[in-house]
Design goal:
- The model has no long low-confidence stretch (mean pLDDT 96).
- The chain has 13 helices and 12 strands.
- By secondary structure, the protein is α/β, with parallel strands linked by helices.
- It has helices at residues 14-23, 32-42, 59-63, 83-88, 101-116, 119-127, 130-134, 156-167, 191-197, 217-223, 240-248, 268-271, 287-305, and strands at residues 5-8, 25-28, 46-52, 70-74, 92-94, 148-152, 171-175, 186-187, 200-203, 228-231, 254-257, 277-278.
- It has 2 domains: 5-98 and 287-305, Rossmann fold (3-Layer(aba) Sandwich); 101-278, Rossmann fold.
- α1 (14-23) runs parallel beside α13.
- The radius of gyration is 22 Å and the shape is elongated.
- The chain has a 7-stranded parallel β-sheet with strand order 8-7-6-9-10-11-12, with helices on both faces. Strands 2-1-3-4-5 form a 5-stranded parallel β-sheet.
């Protein structure tokens, strides 16, 4: 496969880069100032791209690669890839589902506990020496006893989170494009109506035009003054200015966020609040899971060029079994 030219849009984990370099003729996307010259020279030879959320694979970029056959995305979310355009132009897009499901679900429950029980605040209290100087950390109002959870996007990760929530004795409901068969949880066709009825809203929704700012001021108002928002999906799903105002005005009680709209930039207003929990997008951030994700990126490319088709094509580019 050394005669096949593959483009990496950035420096990815060593497992990916080492295998791609050993298997294919690997190109690295240069800085913007040198990009046009690179695409003019190497673009006509590129048949595959390995990418992730660090770079946008839009119509212009893919259009500059006339022989492009497949885009292998590192991550289950692929909103940085214009998969619709790719599908219409005969390009397959793959992602890395399943291998990160359990890790992200674990993180979601950890974030939920940190937020509701104010565990981050209590650790800061101890580290600052207040336990000795001021006495015990104040009792918290937050508890999971008798609470209900609404999950936005009940996909693989959403179901894994729901399973964990069941073990905590939480009542579970969900909102998505449509009701799912063989799911024991209540379905809400309206996100606002679900937010009115639950104590905790957990978003696992992917990014993209359909979900952009779907959690807006109306949803936050419906969640109410004792409500909790947890976002483990994509930052663009939440209207960040509306969330900041809701937290400042105590329209909702608190939030636990692992993702942000303009990562890695986090609004100063959020950082200034000590009654919320903020994580730097660590949902799948273990060596174990990232290695599995990286291997799936490589395996999708090697399977494709071995004539076996993609392993995990996304919905917009279903595999017909016919290459080309």
């Amino acid at each position: 496969m050394k005669t096949i030219d593959v483009l990496a849009t950035g420096t990815m984990i060593p497992l990916i880069m080492e295998q791609l370099e050993a298997t294919f003729t690997l190109h690295r996307l240069p800085a913007p100032a040198e990009r046009d010259a690179f695409l003019a020279a190497a673009g006509p030879r590129i048949r595959a791209v390995a990418t992730g959320g660090h770079a946008r694979m839009d119509a212009a970029m893919m259009g500059a690669l006339p022989k492009l056959e497949i885009v292998a995305n590192f991550g289950v979310g692929y909103d940085s890839v214009d998969a619709g355009w790719a599908g219409r132009n005969g390009i397959v897009v793959t992602n890395t589902p399943d291998v990160l499901t359990e890790e992200v679900a674990d993180t979601a429950l950890g974030l939920l506990l940190m937020t509701v029980r104010e565990l981050s605040a209590s650790e800061r209290y101890l580290r600052a020496g207040h336990w000795v100087a001021k006495g015990a950390f104040p009792l918290t109002h937050g508890t999971l006893r008798g609470k209900s959870v609404g999950i936005l996007a009940l996909g693989r990760i959403g179901k894994a989170i729901a399973k964990r929530c069941e073990a905590f004795g939480l009542t579970i409901s969900y909102h998505g494009r449509s009701a799912q068969k063989d799911v024991p949880y209540r379905y809400y066709p309206s996100l606002v109506e679900m937010a009115k009825d639950v104590d905790i809203l957990i978003s696992v929704a992917p990014g993209g035009a359909e979900t952009h700012h779907i959690i807006d001021a109306a949803v936050l108002a419906a969640l109410g003054p004792t409500g909790v928002l947890i976002n483990i999906g994509r930052g663009s799903v939440v209207d960040e200015p509306a969330l900041i105002k809701a937290l400042q005005d105590r329209t909702i009680a608190t939030a636990g966020l692992d993702v942000f709209e303009h990562e890695p930039k986090v609004p100063a207003e959020l950082i200034a609040m000590d009654h919320i929990v903020l994580l730097p997008h660590v949902g799948s951030g273990s060596h174990h899971t990232r290695r599995l994700m990286g291997q799936l990126v490589v395996d999708n490319l090697t399977s494709w060029f071995a004539g076996k088709g993609p392993l995990t094509p996304v919905a917009e580019t279903p595999w017909s079994g016919i290459k080309g």
